[in-house]
Amino acid sequence: MSNDKQIKKYSVSGIRDFHLDHIFDCGQCFRWEKEEDGSYTGIAFGRPVNMSFDVETETLTIENADEKDFDEIWSGYLHLDRDYARIKDSLAESDPIMKDAIEYGYGIRLLRQDLWETIVSFIISQNNNIPRIKGCIEKLSELFGEFVGEYRGRRWYNIPTAEVMSKLTEEDLAPVRLGYRAKYLISVAQSVTTKGLPADADQVLALKGVGPKVASCITLFSMEMYDSFPVDVWMARVMNQLYGLDEKNRPAIEKYAREHFGELGGFAQQYLFYYIRSKS
DNA sequence: TCGCAGGTGGTCG
DNA sequence: CGACCACCTGCG
User: Fold this and answer.
1) Is the C-beta of residue A147 closer than 7 Å to nucleic acid chain C?
2) Which of A10, A17, A148, A264 is 20 to 30 Å from A183 at the Cα level?
């Protein structure tokens, strides 16, 4: 006797320019974990799922999702409606460095993530390391987020809403171990509750605890501003090593990105980031 | 022990 | 303005 309910799944074939490792390990998201079989389990938009990809048949299978979920959530989340072959051709043309980076992370997709979740995640990410960022996000969700169900033997929670977080105190958040970022989150939650979510880049940058780097991540990962080019320590390093730019001069790096990558800057950033992170 | 990790805000000069 | 520098926390 098994009490397992039949878990739904949905598959789509013919997906090119796609690789789960590239997507989930290029620094854009924090709620996905790799399984021993190479698949990834995680949550987005309140849905915990498992994604696997068969390279031979170019088939993506999403467990715990049906066709409706795929059309309404996952296709957009995985940016499957965008032609990445064209993006890559355009970036690689006349840039041999970018050509190498793209060959390395050929399956990257810029996830279209939830705006509030992205704001929270990247405020937590500042001056922090990835394991701890992930831990903070999970703890925050467990303690204050909505329970959305059990899946694969785990209880899953959403990131708490702005309304819930706006009423928390730093003391409430102490168990999450956010450090000095806790007061930023409370401030931002209060701002969002009273004034609504930011609608443009300037409003994002005006949030407490959001500087140029975090703002660029937010506009790139959740506001579809694909010319955003977040410059963190890794990007500064790679732009120095590969393009000979001054590592200390962030504005010069941003200027170079605008001039050379233009409206595709965000994609370029992801290819370069994955390239340098994987090689170091 | 102490520097560091996918930065930012505050304070000087 | 541009250049520091403190800052929560946990790990090596």
Assistant:
1) no
2) A148
